Amino acid sequence: MVQAATAEMVPVALTTGEGTWLNVLGDLYRLLATGRDTNGAYAVLENKSFPQNGPPPHIHQSESESFYVMDGEFSFLCGDRSIRAMAGAFVHVPPGTLHTYKNVGNTPGRLLVVISPAGFERLFEEIGHPANDLSSAPAVDPAAIQKLFALAPQYGLEIRM
């Protein structure tokens, strides 16, 4: 059964390149659909990850996170499983599972990221800042790292170093 759109859900239609791009810890994220669009059901982001970059190992207490590799070569840790992922690969991470990824290629890679339920994308909005240059790796802002650690408990995020 298809659920009809409600007043809390809005249609989203973005053309190539449209949407808000954020610099988040050296990667670029384009917000495609946020919890504000989906009444909190899920968020969809495009990630442009630069060579040798990726988040520290971490656990989401409440959200599942799914990754579809659109371009590039990544390594993923998902629980106790490590995989090498090229374009077309898919990784789903249930809540409570230790995970991370890293762009292990020599060129930028792209991931489609789905977070369910929505809400975690707000952390990216809080620690990131608007990205204007989409062609080169953005600098990692030390203040954003400090802010990430300060806000992590509020978002049910456990960071493992």
Helices and strands in order, then pairings?
Elements: E1 20-24, E2 27-33, H1 35-38, E3 43-49, E4 58-60, E5 64-71, E6 73-78, E7 81-86, E8 90-93, E9 99-103, E10 109-116, H2 121-127, E11 129-130, H3 142-151, E12 157-159
Antiparallel strand pairs: 1-2, 1-11, 2-3, 3-10, 4-12, 5-8, 5-10, 6-7, 6-9
Brief digest:
The protein is 13% helix and 40% strand.
For the largest beta-sheet, the strand count, sense and barrel status come to: 7 strands, antiparallel
In the sheet with the most strands, the strands line up as 8-5-10-3-2-1-11
Low-confidence stretches: 1-5
Query: Which structural class should the secondary elements be placed in?
Result: mainly beta
How many H/I helices? 3
How many structural domains can be distinguished in the coordinates?
Answer: 1
Relevant CATH superfamily: Jelly Rolls
Based on CA atoms alone, the radius of gyration comes out at 15 Å
User: Taking all residues together, what is the mean pLDDT?
Assistant: 93
Portion of residues in beta strands equals 35-45%
